[in-house]
Amino acid sequence: MKCNVAVVYMHDHLDGDLAREEMKQLQQHLSECPSCYTRYESLERTDALVRALPIEKAPDDLSARIMKSLPSRRRPAAWTSWVRRHPAVSAAAIFMVVMLSSFVSMWNQSQEFSVSGPDLEHVIIEGKNVIVPEGQKVSGNLTVVNGDVQVLGDLDGNLTVIDGHLTPLASTAHIAGEIKTIDRAVDWFWYKVSSFFGTLAYGS
Ligand SMILES: [Zn+2]
Questions:
Q1: How many whole angstroms from 36 Cα to the centroid of ligand 1?
Q2: 185 pLDDT exceeds 60?
Q3: Domain coordinates of the chain in residue numbers?
Q4: Which residue windows are transmembrane per the record (predicted)?
Q5: 145 and 164 in contact (C-beta within 8 Å)?
Q6: How far does residue 38's CA lie from ligand 1's centre (Å)?
Q7: How close is the Cα of 35 to the center of ligand 1, in Å?
């Protein structure tokens, strides 16, 4: 399959209009073509965002107008025609999605790195890397903010990683408590996005 055909199939799929056989071809292409895969992922996110527009909160005539302008079921590539009819909302949605990645990395850079726990003696800290070494036993909880965590040994408590990165656990690793990863930047961003679209709908 060529990339331009794959893009048409992606839109059809997001509209729910893609036949099973074509779906297989698309999946095949996405597994071989990284650039189409990336494109598909961002289309999917934009699609979810557009669907999440708080239509029910909007004034009645606005929802009626939106419902009327929605393309009919059988029309091919309906999603693209929706985008063409609503360029402002679509551009805003795409802009938001594109901003997310740069925003998250900016946020993570601005956060202070910190490690806390009752037993840091047995933890290796190199720059922003926090390592529980193989064969080592660390007692109590371990909390890392804005760092890379790698567990090769034993942790006798909970592991919490905030705005950081947890390397998949090594086979030698053992964590007695819970593992939690929290991304505050993403939560905050989605809160902002939804309140932004809330204002848009009310204001129209
Ligand atoms: Zn491709």
A1: 4
A2: yes
A3: 114-185
A4: 88-107
A5: yes
A6: 10
A7: 6
